[in-house]
């Protein structure tokens, strides 16, 4: 692996109580003007970020184990991304690809055709957010199949716009009181090995298929959409065989198989895309988060015959494939390739998983340790049961933050601590962050220490 250089000192440094006085003042100002519905997990305001650290406005340096939700895999101020952004911004920030197109968009599409699973002809459309990519995947599936039913899964997260809110499983906080929701979305049981022990991937898929055929009808199903590893829903890795069986059924039934790789894409799970772990080739793939080193960009890539079937003007958007975001993506993708970030994600897994498994062995309150690459989670439960313990997850994240480590929670039951470190984090800093997390687990969950 090539050496990775850093601009900010890679250290955990606590100068004030967290949040410090400047962050607290910003929280006050924010209350007067920022919508209350927009919440922040951490009440600490960022002033700088690089590699594995976020430096706050009070001069504290926090270890980042969240990457702004799996976005800044290459770092939050990656030098080559920053240079590409500056260079492009000095030429043009926007012309609108639907008016005067430009090469950056085409090059991103070329990269995605080469990087995404499958050797078939592919086409790409670019958007601004993961939700928008998902919406467009559904539009393409419905148009090309002439069918309307879309199958989504328990614990799924696909976004917060109206259609994606309907696809998302969890009501609070994502959907509650914000309907009516888009019609023709059908929810099916996920393969969730920890909560569904003894059910193989094939059996879990059979259960889904029987239900689709009984309740929707194979010839009415436009698409199945699934995250190959669920993100917000709890880092759920389906049992082996589940995804391949669903792909096979979709193909036999004329339905479009959509892999939502918005969170899992771009080296995060130890492969460029999580679909690769099971050798599946989706018809459509949605991407965003890790694609452009933090710049807002999303993509829908898939079979040429699907994306080319849409009439001209049927896909697009004013900002979709913004030239600055495309330049950032090209630099980020180059960086991921040059520095073998998929390999780096596997290396992170090799550091993180054994340590969390060791803590789990002593603390009866960790029901499961799971995930792939640099996408690893622990599921907190009441000791000796599998009853979700959201309060413990929250308390552990708060305790870690007070010690200068940012970790995120997730899950349908809110009881998951998820680790999504920047892929460029140094080993020593990662180990230090894990040490703080382990101490927080022992304090809160009451392991033996
Ligand atoms: C974050 C996420 C989305 C939504 O992306 P936004 O950019 O927040 O709209 C969709 N699908 C998955 C799997 C995600 O993790």
General description of the model:
With 449 residues, the protein is α/β, with parallel strands linked by helices. It folds into two domains: 21-77 and 340-445, Aspartate Aminotransferase, domain 1, CATH 3.90.1150.10; 81-338, Type I PLP-dependent aspartate aminotransferase-like (Major domain) (Aspartate Aminotransferase, domain 2, 3-Layer(aba) Sandwich), CATH 3.40.640.10. The protein is built from 13 helices and 15 strands. The chain has a seven-stranded mixed beta sheet, sandwiched between helices. Strand 5 (149-153), helix 6 (162-167) and strand 6 form a beta-alpha-beta unit. The longest helix has 22 residues, at 341-362. 53% of the residues are buried. The mean pLDDT is 97. Bound molecules: pyridoxal-5'-phosphate. Pyridoxal-5'-phosphate binds next to helix 5.
Going across the biggest sheet, name each strand in turn.
Answer: 4-10-9-8-7-5-6
Shape-level CATH architecture of the largest domain: 3-Layer(aba) Sandwich
Helices and strands, in order, run as: HEEEHHHEHEHEHEHEEEHHHEEHEEEH
> How much is the radius of gyration in Å?
21 Å
Count of separate structural domains:
2
Within CATH, the superfamily of the largest domain carries the name Type I PLP-dependent aspartate aminotransferase-like (Major domain)
CATH topology of the largest domain: Aspartate Aminotransferase, domain 2
Bound small molecules, by name, code or SMILES, are:
pyridoxal-5'-phosphate
Strand content: 15-25%
Tell me about the largest β-sheet. Answer: 7 strands, mixed
CATH class term of the largest domain? Alpha Beta
Global outline: globular
* Terminus-to-terminus distance: 36 Å
Report low-confidence residues grouped into runs of 5 or more. Answer: none
- Overall pLDDT level: 97
Number of helices: 13
């Amino acid at each position: 692996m090539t050496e990775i250089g850093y601009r900010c000192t890679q250290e955990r440094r606590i100068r004030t109580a967290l949040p410090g006085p400047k962050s607290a003042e910003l929280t006050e100002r924010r209350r007067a003007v920022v919508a209350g519905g927009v919440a922040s997990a951490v009440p600490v305001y960022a002033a700088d970020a690089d590699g594995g650290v976020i430096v706050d406005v009070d001069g504290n340096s926090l270890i980042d184990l969240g990457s702004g939700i799996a976005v800044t895999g290459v770092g939050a101020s990656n030098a080559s991304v920053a240079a590409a952004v500056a260079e492009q911004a000095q030429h043009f920030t926007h012309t609108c690809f639907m008016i005067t197109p430009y090469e950056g968009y085409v090059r991103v599409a070329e990269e995605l055709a080469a990087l995404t699973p499958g050797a078939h002809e592919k086409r790409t459309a670019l958007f601004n957010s993961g939700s928008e990519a998902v919406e467009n995947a559904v539009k393409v599936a419905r148009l090309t199949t002439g069918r309307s039913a879309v199958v989504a899964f328990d614990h799924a997260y696909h976004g917060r716009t109206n259609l994606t809110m309907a696809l998302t499983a969890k009501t609070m906080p994502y959907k509650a009181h914000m309907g009516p929701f888009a019609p023709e979305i059908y929810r099916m049981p996920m393969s969730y090995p920890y909560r569904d022990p003894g059910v193989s991937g094939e059996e879990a898929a059979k259960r889904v298929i029987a239900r689709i055929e009984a309740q929707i009808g194979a010839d009415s199903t436009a698409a199945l959409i699934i995250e190959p590893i669920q993100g917000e829903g709890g880092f759920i890795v389906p049992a082996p065989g589940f995804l391949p069986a669903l792909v096979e059924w979709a193909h036999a039934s004329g339905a479009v198989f959509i892999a939502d790789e918005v969170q899992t894409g771009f080296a995060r799970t130890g492969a460029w895309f999580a679909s690769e772990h099971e050798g599946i080739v989706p018809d459509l793939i949605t991407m965003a988060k890790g694609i452009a080193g933090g710049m807002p960009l999303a993509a829908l890539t898939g079979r040429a015959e699907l994306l080319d079937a849409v009439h001209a003007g049927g896909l697009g958007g004013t900002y979709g494939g913004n030239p600055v975001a495309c330049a950032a993506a090209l630099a980020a993708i180059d960086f991921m390739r040059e520095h073998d970030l998929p390999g780096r994600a596997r290396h992170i897994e090799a550091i993180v998983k054994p340590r969390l498994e060791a803590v789990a062995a002593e603390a009866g309150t960790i029901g499961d340790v799971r995930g792939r690459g640099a996408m690893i989670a622990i599921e907190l439960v009441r000791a000796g049961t599998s009853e979700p313990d959201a309060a413990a997850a929250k308390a552990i994240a708060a305790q870690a933050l007070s010690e200068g480590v940012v970790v995120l929670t997730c899950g349908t039951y809110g009881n998951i601590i998820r680790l999504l470190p920047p892929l460029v984090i140094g080993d020593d800093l990662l180990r230090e962050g894990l040490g703080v997390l382990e101490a927080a687990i022992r304090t809160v969950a009451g392991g033996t220490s």
